[in-house]
């Protein structure tokens, strides 16, 4: 797994222009501090301390998905929101979300193979011609890569819906396991950019906008979970679960002030506290290795 992760990060560096010291994905972003207030509504499903009613501190990083920080805000329609909860016992636990409910590759091998045939993403768009027959073999990847061109970005980091994409398991005191998926809902409502607005966006306008917004008052997100049914896949990030699945609100994240602190953090989505476990999803488990390699490289470069 580690070798494939190294090859994959090498390939990201080859097809994107990644400057020294930057994350190998979601290179440009902005970090905040805040706190999470739990409702306690899922304490029959998980023993995770930050989901029992009460407050936990949190660090948050908003980002544009591109590994190249020079891409304009509009070239990265997918935005990220990574959250690290700081628990009272000194542990940390992460939820890493993006403004897309699905990922374009089902396995690490497919992800790496797609990167391997792409010569360059430097102009911001994958050449579908280049990917040609590969996408015929992986229709789920083709569908999403075609859609990236049409995907609408949120109008602000504060108005996106962020999905953690993969399934996770909640484990309760009796060791019962419930598959779940996370979703962050913006308190101010979802708002997307029109293609016309997108054209006029200058680079860094998202960062400037969120800075101004937080200076006026806290930015809030509600954390919901979808409860998986036995027929819902827990190993396939290219598949959404039915929208009518039962939902529970776990709490509210209140973002209060900018901090540089989160820039150095690795928001590894497999780091979590007792009461939550990774699903069988191979992309999720692979991310652990890729993120460690990226963190190591960006740290030694600075
Ligand atoms: C094969 C699959 C994937 C690979 C190889 C990959 C790779 C990476 C790498 C190398 C980083 C930078 C890590 C660092 O230096 O700290 C990163 C960051 C990130 N990735 Fe992924 N990723 C994958 C899938 C996903 C998926 C499915 C999501 C959806 C939630 C996602 C969301 C993010 C976000 C939001 C960040 C930025 C986190 C931050 O602000 O530090 N990634 N990814």
UniProtKB/TrEMBL annotation:
GO CC: one term? cytoplasm
Residues annotated for heme binding in this entry: 291
UniProt GO molecular function: catalase activity; heme binding; metal ion binding
UniProt keyword DNA-binding, yes or no: no
Q: Which residues form the Catalase core domain?
A: 1-302
Q: Which GO terms describe its biological process?
A: hydrogen peroxide catabolic process; response to hydrogen peroxide
Q: What keywords were assigned to this record?
A: Heme, Iron, Metal-binding, Oxidoreductase, Peroxidase
Q: Which Pfam families match?
A: Catalase (PF00199)
Recorded hits in InterPro entries, A to Z, give: Catalase, Catalase_core, Catalase_sf, Catalase_SrpA-type_pred
Whether Heme counts among this entry's keywords is yes
User: What's the superkingdom here?
Assistant: Bacteria
Question: What is the active site of this protein?
Answer: 26
Query: What PANTHER family does this protein's entry cite?
Result: CATALASE
The record's similarity note reads: Belongs to the catalase family.
Protein name (Swiss-Prot/TrEMBL)? Catalase
Source organism of this protein record: Planococcus donghaensis
């Amino acid at each position: 797994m580690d070798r494939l992760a190294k090859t994959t990060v090498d390939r990201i560096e080859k097809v994107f222009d990644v400057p020294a010291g930057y994350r190998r994905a979601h290179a440009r972003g902005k970090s905040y501090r805040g706190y999470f207030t739990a409702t306690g509504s899922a304490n029959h499903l998980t023993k995770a301390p930050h989901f029992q009613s009460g407050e936990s501190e949190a660090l948050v990083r908003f980002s544009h998905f591109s590994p190249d920080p020079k891409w304009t805000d509009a070239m990265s329609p997918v935005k990220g929101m990574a959250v690290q909860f700081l628990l009272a016992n000194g542990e940390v636990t992460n939820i890493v979300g993006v403004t897309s409910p699905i990922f374009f590759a089902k396995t690490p091998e497919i992800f790496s193979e797609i990167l391997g045939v792409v010569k360059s993403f430097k102009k911001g768009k994958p050449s579908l011609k280049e990917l040609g027959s590969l996408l015929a073999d992986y229709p789920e990847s083709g569908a999403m890569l075609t859609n990236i061109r049409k995907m609408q970005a949120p109008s602000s980091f504060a108005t996106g819906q962020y999905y953690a994409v993969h399934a996770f398991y909640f484990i309760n005191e009796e060791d019962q396991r419930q598959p779940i998926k996370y979703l962050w809902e913006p308190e101010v409502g979802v708002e997307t950019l029109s293609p016309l607005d997108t054209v006029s966006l200058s680079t860094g306008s998202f960062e400037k906008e969120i800075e101004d917004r937080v200076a006026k008052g806290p930015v809030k997100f509600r954390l919901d979970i979808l409860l998986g049914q036995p027929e819902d896949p827990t190993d396939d990030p290219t598949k959404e679960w039915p929208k009518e699945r039962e939902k529970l609100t776990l709490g509210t994240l209140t973002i209060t002030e900018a901090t540089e602190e989160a820039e150095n953090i690795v928001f590894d989505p497999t780091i979590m506290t007792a009461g939550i476990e990774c699903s069988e999803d191979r992309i999720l488990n692979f991310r652990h290795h890729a993120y460690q390699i990226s963190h190591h490289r960006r740290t030694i470069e600075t």
